[in-house]
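## retry 2 of 3
previous attempt timed out at serialization; input unchanged, resubmitting
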Amino acid sequence: MKKKLNVILIIAVAVLWGTVIYKYVSQYFAKGIAVYESHQPVSEKVATWQKDTFEIMPLKRDPFLNVAYAAPHQVHRQSNVRIKTRQKPAPVHVDFPQLNYFGYLKSKDKSGELVLLKVNNKLTKLHVGESLDGLKIVKIYKDSVKVSFNGEIRGIKKN
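## retry succeeded, writing output
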């Protein structure tokens, strides 16, 4: 019984595969198919669709919750957002300090000269190139000294 069933199944599978192969191969060996060409102009109309425009109205009732809404009203909100712009701070003009030059001291080992200055009524001692509150000693002479303050250079004479 098993042998008969196997034989029948094998024959059925062979027939199925045969028809599939026949249909695939027959399209390449087909004869007698004539192709007729028409020399008349063909006018095909292209179907065009008109857009349907409509206005969507707001819902008066929620279909899922079965809740009715009141008529919508327009809410005009004023924005509380303030745009902060960075403003450049106005340049602060600082006046040149009041200076009095009393002279300089030379050291024996020539490590540097020490200048005696009175800046805004305070006595200070500064070396060349040293700065105090933006006031910098540029060069020392016997009778004067060159100082710079905020990019401005001035010469101060000895009192």
